[in-house]
Design brief:
mainly alpha; MetI-like fold; cell membrane; MetI-like_sf
């Protein structure tokens, strides 16, 4: 029994450490987003404020990067999903030997480092533009186009993997039966295969959008002089961070939670609809409950609650609290300065006075020639200092001052 209790304690401690490691940074960032301190921190807590959200939305460079990221992300989704679907369909139709070679070719871009992809994209499109005589203002040297092209080269492979996983559960005899009954290949694709792939299409679109949005290694080269949301965040962190990044984390966490709850409501509704009439009448028999459990209504309620909390928090005025914090800091600084002055006075009082200097002037090496009264009229010249015997010269006195006088 003690062994079981010890094992349960170890499992509980491990779970606690795991969730603390997983969610601890998120909780810290959420707290620091509402602290008025100019550096992201929890302690010491200063004032509750929402000014960092204003700082985030007031950053023009960051907002411009966000717009660029959205444009590039939509373009990547529009290209990568059809290309990935085409690659998955091609792999499902060819023979085993060709499938292995084709799969290696299509999956290789994922294995190449993003730095290599970014540099190779610039080199390839730049060389192509120069070969056709395009100037540097053309599309071949445009950062948005190069980023779109560079990201599609490997993000399309992600979409292909999603479609391959879905196609493994598809029964090809369904399309064969449709073709035998007179349907064209296009009709069989639109009415049989495409509805079956609809969940995979949504997953692939969402995955490629996120992969494009958060990509840095390739984008930092291909965007050239422009910027995206990710590159702007990286440069902001590199040059000094502030709690506006924590405010961004709060927004991302809120959007993620709302999306997860809406998806859960949609999943449960679809499950109830598949269980039969009894379950539907039990859960959705009440009209009010049926409306509240609808995914759209869940989304509306969550957005309304989030908007209400945001509006309520934005009405809080932190100026009085911040002024009080500033006054306290000034008072503490004055106290420390006064304590330092007191220590200096105490040290001076404890130090003994230096001995008085002698009345006579210090002996000069110039024989008193520079004394203040040496040039006064009638004053006797200062006695010359006794000559110091010179050290014998190694040249026998040949260079002595009187050695050249005539005898």
């Amino acid at each position: 029994m003690n062994k079981g209790t010890g094992g349960g304690a170890i499992a509980a401690g491990y779970s606690l450490l795991f969730f603390a490691f997983l969610f601890g940074p998120l909780i810290i960032m959420v707290i620091t987003a509402f602290n008025s301190s100019s550096f992201p921190r929890i302690t010491p807590w200063e004032c509750f404020t929402t000014e960092w959200f204003d700082e985030l939305f007031g950053n023009e460079r960051l907002m411009a990067g966000l717009v660029n990221s959205v444009i590039i992300g939509v373009g990547v989704v529009a290209i990568s999903v059809p290309v990935g679907l085409a690659g998955a369909l091609a792999l499902s139709e060819v023979g085993p030997k060709v499938r292995a070679a084709l799969y290696t070719v299509l999956i290789t871009p994922i294995l190449i480092p993003g730095v290599v992809l970014g540099i190779s994209t610039i080199v390839f499109w730049g060389g192509l533009g120069r070969s056709v005589g395009a100037d540097y203002g053309s599309i071949f040297f445009d950062g948005m186009f190069l980023t779109l092209a560079g990201q599609v080269t490997f993000i399309a492979a992600y979409a292909m993997l999603v479609f391959l996983a879905r196609l493994q559960r598809f029964d090809p005899t369904l399309t064969e039966a449709a073709l035998d009954l007179g349907a064209t290949p296009g009709q069989a694709f639109r009415k049989i295969l495409l509805p079956f792939l609809s969940p995979a299409i949504g997953s692939a679109a969402f995955l490629t959008l996120l992969a494009s949005f958060e990509n840095y290694n390739t984008t930092v080269f291909t965007i050239l002089s422009g910027n995206t949301f990710t590159t702007t965040l990286a440069s902001k962190v590199r040059h000094g961070t502030d709690p506006s990044l924590s405010a961004l984390a709060v927004i991302i966490i809120a959007v993620t939670l709302i999306g997860a709850m809406v998806h859960e409501a949609h999943t449960r509704r679809a499950e109830v609809m598949r269980t039969g009439q009894a379950a539907r009448s039990k859960v959705y028999g009440n009209p009010v409950l049926s409306v509240l459990a609808h995914p759209v209504m869940v989304l509306v309620l969550l957005v309304a609650m989030g908007g209400g909390l945001a509006y309520k928090a934005s009405q809080h005025d932190a100026r009085a609290c911040k002024q009080q914090i500033l006054d306290d800091k000034r008072a503490l600084q004055e106290k420390l300065l006064e304590e330092q002055r007191e220590r200096i006075r105490a040290q001076k009082a404890a130090t003994p006075a230096p001995a008085a200097p002698s009345s006579g002037p210090a002996p000069s090496s110039f024989g008193g020639a520079f004394n203040p009264g040496s040039l006064a009229p009638g004053s006797a010249p200062a006695p010359a200092a006794p000559a110091t015997p010179k050290t014998p010269s190694g040249f026998g006195g040949a260079f002595a001052p009187g050695s050249l006088k005539p005898n």
